[in-house]
Every structure is written in structure tokens, then in C-alpha cells.
Amino acid sequence: MQEWFKKAKLGIFIHYGIYAVKGVSESWSFYHGSISYEDYMKQLEGFTASNFDADHWADLFKKSGARYAVLTSKHHDGVALFDTKYSDLSVVKKSPAARDILKEYIEAVRGAGLKVGVYYSLLDWSHPDYASVYPDGRVPADLSTVNRFSSPTDGTQDPAAWQRFLEFDRAQLSEVLGNYGKIDLLWFDGDWERNAKQWGLPEFKEYLKSFNPDLIINNRFAGYGDYLTPEQGIPVNRPKGVWEFCTTINSSWGYQPRDQHYKSLRQIIHMFCDCLSMGGNLLLDVGPMEDGTIVPRQEETLLGLGEWIRANEEAVYESVAGVPANYYGDGSVLSADGKTLYLFVHNRPAEAVCVKGLKNRVTRASVLHSGRELRRDVHGGAPWNGIPGILWIYLTEEDCAEMTTVVKLELDGPVQLYDGGGAVITNNQ
Ligand code: GLC
Questions:
Q1: CATH placement of domain 320-411
Q2: What residue spans define the domains of the chain?
Q3: Atom 11, ligand 1: which residue's CA is nearest?
Q4: Which atom of ligand 1 is nearest to the CA of 285?
Q5: Which H or E element spans position 92?
Q6: Which member of 4, 299, 308, 345 lies 3.0 to 4.6 Å from 405 by CB, making a disulfide possible if both were Cys?
Q7: Three-class SS state of 46
Q8: Architecture, CATH, for domain 3-311
């Protein structure tokens, strides 16, 4: 895994597509029949990108504190945001926008010094050769359950058509990876309708890496990805290996004006801290309007998150996962050398916050954003027996930041934690 990704901590996900015209759900709306395929595709006529300013996006992402961005170059609907030789279904050829959105996005994001990520749906519910086989190649017992966009409805598979589809995906990906300079991250989606063998893995992966050996690929690649992508529900246990939590700011990936179910900035910062605490990244989504405008509420969230990150930067990019929640419940991170522990304090404590099971001596406790030193105290324990007491750090109202406060604990050495269940102290003092 590339170091940049582990240190990036925050990425911005952008679900931009024709679904923003009517404000329906991306691709899934026609798949589930809440809109007909024809009406869904009519949205092409209303996709103008008239206010799309990639530099403004990139500038906003940078201000949010993100180190990378990921744009939907093609969602499950098969509508490419880029100029592709291999299909007419693109906003370049079929919408009034008539622009290569992907190209402008890549240039702006790269120009702003961010890493370039591209989302690409492996499955394509519009391609005539896509619905040619069944998952795992097995004809389902009950054909009435088959969605016509995914697989044939008559029980007949067409392996030759499937091979053509694979060639098509590869050809489009050669454009994505070959026509716009170096792509740092490929964010696949929709692998779940076929297995690794059907996707032609592992050769498919080798082919992609031949464009850029440093290319990172997420795990939605039938078991061949580089990192995990839990979605919408934050992990409660630390996922194994490298991971990134993707989530929406309201409840929708794309622009859906009816959806006013917004998370507050405070909640977004809390979730970001949860990711940091467990050593993961946050990939925070925005759903721009059809004209390319990012809705003000989402823009404000990004800017607010950026402000918080700048005030607490020391605890962000260079940090690693903190101590487990039974030592400190609200989440924490450690400096890379393990000698500084940063505690996230989301709510104003009535009196103090406490850390349990810390064997180290704290040489200084302070508030990160202000530098103000904090009073601290240890109660109980029997350090001569290897049993630490409880460390209390006293925080007053004015020590706290408006959003999550970070308390910095400087330790006498790399963090050492007690992991016992308590014991009788047989050698008392
Ligand atoms: C989902 C959906 C999709 C969305 C994505 C984001 O599984 O299929 O609409 O783009 O994942 O993580």
C-alpha cells in the first residue's frame, strides 16, 4: 500500500451524473423501477454542467483538508463523464454539456496537489453485452427474481457476449488510465454481480497495474483490491489492514434535493475522528447539482471540516490509530513514534476526561489547538506492581473548542498499555 494513502486521512467522493437532473437515485432508480429506463436516460438532455468549474471544486477539496478526491467517471447506469471511443453513452456525446468532465476534474485536482482518484463501475446496466451471464455462471432456480439489467431473464447465457463486455470494460479503463496522465487510485464498484473468474482476475488487475505500478485499487474487485471500503455504517471494530470509510453528508450519494437528512458538521467531525482512531480514512461524498454546483450546505461542511483539521493538524495526517476504546472511549490517535497520545473530546466534560490502563507517565497535558496546559492527576493503581491508576485530565468550558477538542498527552516513552483484569496487590507500600 502506498504511504500517501495511509497518510491522506481524508478524501472527497463526488457522485456527479445525469441523475442530478431529476434528483433521482444514481442508477438504482431505474434498476428498481422507480423511474423507467427511458425517462432516466432522458436526463441526458438536461445535463448542462453549465456551472461546472473544476478549479473551484479542487480548491474546495483542498480547503476541506482532503488529500485526494474520487469522481464517478461512470456509474452503474453506464453514462460516462469522459470522452470514450467505445460507447456513445457519455455526457460528451449525448448531453448539452458536451464536455469531458473527467479531464477537467483530473487536471484541476492534480493541479491543486491532490491525488487523483477515479470511480468506475465495473458493472454496466446499459451495455448490451452486460446482462449475458449469471453471477457465478449459475442459472437461478427462480428466473422471476432476475433483474433484466443484470442477467438474462430466459435462462440462456452467452459467454461470448460476456467476453465482449470484459473487453469493453478494459478498453474504457485503458482510456481512463491512459489518456489523462497518472491516475493514483481506481475506485471500483459493482463487482458483486460476477465472481473473480468471470471478471478475468487476476490478469485484469495486472493489466490495470501495467498503466501505473503504483496504482491503488479499492477492494470492490472480487477479492483483488488493495484496501477495504466499509460504506455508510461506521465500523465498530477496527477493520483488518488498510481501509477507508465512505459516507454521504445527507443520505444520498448523488444530488437529491428532497433529502434533507443532513449530518451536522459536529457529527461529520466525530465520524472523521472515529476513522482516525481506528487507523482508517474517511471518503466524504458530495452530490453536485446537474450544472456542477456543489450545494451550499455540503460546501459548508467541507469548509468546516477543513477548519477543524487545520486547528488540529498534528493529530491528523501523521497520526496512527490510538488506544482501544476500553482505555479511552471517545477515540484517540498516537504520533508515529507512539510517544504522544491525542484524545478526542466530543462533548464538554462536566469535570474531567479519563484514560485507563496507561502505564506511561504523562510529562505534559495540553489542549492541542490553544497549547494551554491542563491540570492532571492519577488516582489509584500500583505502578510498582505494573498496575496503572486512572489518569484524570481536567477540562474547563473555556478549554474546549466549538467542535471536537483534542487533548495532547506527552508521554515519557512509547505508549505502554496494561491489559490485565486487575490483581491483588501482594507487595503494598
Ligand atoms: C454502492 C452503490 C452506489 C454508490 C456506492 C458508493 O454500493 O451501488 O450507488 O455509488 O456504493 O460507495
A1: 2.60.40.1180
A2: 3-311, 320-411
A3: 189
A4: 6
A5: helix 91-94
A6: 345
A7: helix
A8: Alpha-Beta Barrel (3.20)
